[in-house]
Amino acid sequence: MSKVLVLAFSNLPHDARITRQINWLSEDHMVTVVCFQGLREIKNVSFLEIEQSGLSLVKKAFLAFALGFKLFDLAYRIQHPYVKRIKSKLKSEFDIIVANDIETLPLAFKLKTTAKVLFDAHEYAPRHFEDKKWWKLLFGPLNFHLCKKYIPKTAMMTTVCDGLMLEYKKNFGVKAHIITNATKYHPIQPKKVAGDKIRLVHHGIINRSRKVEKMVEVMKILGDDYELDFYFLIPEYASSNTSDYFDNLKLEIDGLPNVRVLPAIPNELIAPTLNNYDLGLFLLEPINFNYTHALPNKLFDFVQARLAIAIGPSIEMKKIVNAHNIGVVSADFDPQSLANSIKNLNRDDIFEMKLNSEKAAYNLSEEGNKKLFLQLVNQS
Question: What is the number of domains present in the chain?
C-alpha cells in the first residue's frame, strides 16, 4: 500500500475533481491531503488544513515588485506564505505526490525525497486569466516560469482535455494524459418533457468573467414557453467584485418571470435534482484560452442527469455534444443564436436527446478516468 500526498490549494467541498481523486486513491492507498478545507466524510484520509489568508497592502506591494522584476521565486514565497508551514508539519515520507494546479508544484518538489510527482493541470496555467491585463502582465510570466521549471521534472502529468494537453506539449515538451471532469455514473432514467413549459437549468460557481448575463439574455428571447433555474455557488472566498456582480445579476433576474435563482446543490444531489429538467444550458464566451477549451464538470453532470444540452460552439464541449447527439450547439456565442437553436427543438427532439444521454452516460462517466488515474499512480 503506497503512501500518497495530495496537494490542493483549494476548498474541497467546492472542488469535485480533487474530491474524485481522493476517493479513488483512498480505496487502496494511505492518503494525506493538504488543502484549505477538507472533507470529513471521506474515511481513512488524513487532512492537513491550511489557513487561506489574504495579503496585506505592504505584501501586495512587495509581490507586485517581485513580479515586475521577474523575481519569481520570491514572488511565489510572498504569494503562498503557508508553504513553509506545510513543509514543517509534514513529517512523513511519501511514495507519490499528486500536485493539483501549478501553484502546488513548487511545494511538491520541496517535499519530494524519493517520491514520484504526478502533476494534474486543471487549467492552462500561463494563460489562465489572460483576459485581465494586469494578470497577463504580472502572473502570466510567473506561471510560465513555474511550468518551464517544474513540469519537465514530473514523473507524469494529467489534464482535462485535448486543447490543454496540446498547448502544454507545445510549450513544455510533456504530453499529458487526459482525465476529464466526468462525474460518477448515475443509474437514472430520462424523463419526458412534461407540463406547459420547457425547463432549462444551469448550475455552478458564479463569477463575472463567465458572463452569466448572456444566458439571461437567451431566456428573454425565448419568452414565456421556457423557464430557467440557476443553482449558483458563491464560494466563501469570493471577492467583493464577485458579490457585487451576483447582487446586480439577481436584481435583473428578479424582474423576469421565467428565470429563478436557487441555492447551490450538494455534489451528491446534482444529478437527481437536474433530472427534473429538460435542457442543461451553458453559454461561455471564449474570452481567454481556458474558456475557449473549457470542458467543465457541468457538461458531464447534464449527461448523468439524462438531459438534453444547449451550448455555444465551445471547442471541447461541442465535440462531445455532437459525437453523441445529446444536444444543440449554436452557430456563435450570441444569445440570439443559442435561443434560435433551442427554439428549433420540439419536445420529441428533446426527449430523443435525453435518451441519447442515457446511452452515453456510462462512457461519459468517471469510470474510465478512474482506471487510468490509478494505473498512472500504481505504475509510478
Answer: 2
Q: By CB neighbour count within 10 A (0-12 exposed, 13-18 middle, 19+ buried), where does 207 fall?
A: middle
- Residue 10: phi and psi, rounded to 5, are -155, 155
**Does residue 35 contact residue 12 with C-beta atoms inside 8 Å?**
yes
DSSP secondary structure of 72-93? HHHHHHHH-THHHHHHHH--S-
Cell numbers standing for residue 180: 476529464
Cell numbers placing 336: 440570439
The parent domain of residue 63 ranges over 3-182+366-379
CA–CA distance, 45 with 36 (Å, rounded to integer):
15
3-state SS, residue 317: helix
User: 3-state DSSP: the chain helix, strand, coil percent, rounded to 5?
Assistant: 50, 15, 35
Query: pLDDT tens digits, residue range 131-187?
Result: 999 999 999 999 999 999 999 999 999 999 999 999 999 999 999 999 999 999 999
Check whether residue 117 and residue 45 sit in a common domain: yes
What would the pLDDT profile of 203-232 be if each residue is shown by its tens digit?
999 989 999 999 999 999 999 999 999 999
Cell of 333: 456565442
pLDDT in tens, 116-145: 999 999 999 999 999 999 999 999 999 999
**CATH classification of the domain holding 206:** 3.40.50.2000
